[in-house]
Write a structure and sequence with these properties.
This protein has a seven-stranded mixed beta sheet. Helix 5 packs antiparallel against helix 8. Helices cover 29% and strands 25% of the residues. The longest helix has 18 residues. It is an alpha+beta fold. The protein folds into three domains: 30 residues, no CATH class; 123 residues, 60s Ribosomal Protein L30, Chain: A; 156 residues, PurM-like C-terminal domain (Phosphoribosyl-aminoimidazole Synthetase, Chain A, domain 2). Belongs to the HypE family. One of its GO terms (biological process) is protein maturation. InterPro entries: HypE (IPR011854), PurM-like_C_dom (IPR010918), PurM-like_C_sf (IPR036676), PurM-like_N (IPR016188), PurM-like_N_sf (IPR036921). This is Hydrogenase expression/formation protein HypE.
Length: 344
Amino acid sequence: MSDDDTVTVAHGAGTGKTRAFLEDSVVSRFAQNGAGDDLAVGLDALDDGAVHEIDDRSVVVTTDSHVVSPLSFPGGDIGRLAVAGTVNDLAVMGATEPLSLTCSLIVEAGTSVELLEDILDSMEATCEAAGCAITTGDTKVMGSGEVDGVVINTTGVGVIPQGAHVPDAGLSPGDKLVLSGAVGDHGITLLAEREGFDIDGELRSDVAPVNDAVAAALDAGTITAMKDPTRGGLATALNEMATKGAAGIVVDEPAVPVHDAVSAAGELLGIDPFDVANEGEVVFGVDAADADAVVDALQATSVGADAAVIGEVTDEHTGRVVLDTGFGRRYLSEPEGEQLPRIC
């Protein structure tokens, strides 16, 4: 059968096939189904969450399901990933103080109780770091072979002043692009750990809650757009922001922070660090006058030491991302298919 007849791993990559599937099969059914007048950001926006306006407040809601192999890896595990991923999706919508998280555990029969408790300990520690709590949830146990180890779904809720949410579609020509830290750490670390590669240098996932860093950026300057570059990496996040904002982006490649170990491993493995998932980074559109202040604010946080201005928004190349390598320019396209399955 063709790809049009069956779901493939590429449909879960967060890139073009994912968006096409969502638009054709999901958004067309549910975008307006039961949505009231209070819906400021809905399903059709394909943003990191929904925003409901209630009285003088906006309620931000997001949900995510987490699958990763291996379940534990340098820098974290599926528990830390589940909490941080949902907290971060709230944060890039402007909700930096999560009100509540839910947690649904789907566990394969035969899973070690010790392993599961380690995962739950990790979730507890990450909640404490993010200043949030899990307040309700559900548990299902599947038969051996019916699910791969542990799957975790988390939903997050945050409350912000009405109109305070930040979309991923808000870029304007003249804005600067600020990245909160180095790219590629999570994806390259997972691949190396999964395949047992012995690579010189320390590889460590960046998975972490970024809500404090986002709050610092919002306090430091005018943020026009935000997105966390998870599935599909920085390349996909930037292309989505350019398309949604009907603007062009020029990225200064030498300015994009990439750790030496990640760069070396990526070259060895044939994987571009721009194309793989990050789990503790944010890309911001920032008013040009505030860019340096935002970078300074990010660098003062626990996750923002490598923060940098990496490019700017233009009125040329609408909907495209141009990568300036220092020697020439080319379009930076989002990756096709699923390079690294079961990664977040």
